[in-house]
Amino acid sequence: MFRNDEKSKHFMKNIRAYNMIFSFTSMGGKIDRSINKGGAPFVFKLNGVNYHQIGSMLPHQEEHRRFSQLYIYDTENEVPNRINALSGKDKDGSKKLDQQIVEDLRVVVDEFNHFAMKFSEMQGRGLKREMEVRSR
Q: Residue 101: is it exposed, middle or buried by C-beta count within 10 angstroms (0-12/13-18/19+)?
């Protein structure tokens, strides 16, 4: 993914989106937007408390799976679910993310990320069954 071919260029152009779809949490805090006035380089500044929101482990029926829920529920459709979790589209209306790149990243994350391994273990430990009972 770090060559000079079209797939590598696509990955580098959309690297933040690929990173986001494998997030376990979303970041929260009060962003100071007043600091980026003028022509200086961009600065990301948070005021007050910085925190991470993990959200519910049990998604509502009408909601798309997101963040840590993607590691537990409907893992048979994990790649399309991850792509759908990011609703952004290119100017021509097509999805930004390449399905094969997402699959390749999923394999690496599942194999080497300890958090992903632990979340995946939850599939067989009753959380999935609780979701099925709750949806009845």
A: middle
Residue 26 C-alpha from the chain's centroid: 9
Predicted TM-score (pTM) of the model is: 0.68
Other residues' Cβ atoms within 10 Å of the Cβ of residue 136: 4
Report which DSSP code applies to 29: E
Which residues, at least 6 apart from 99, have a Cβ–Cβ distance to it below 8 Å?
79, 80, 83
Asked if residue 31 lies in contact with residue 51, where contact means CB atoms within 8 angstroms, the answer is no
Owner of token pair 């394999």: 107
Per-residue pLDDT of 63-76, as tens digits, reads 777 778 887 777 78
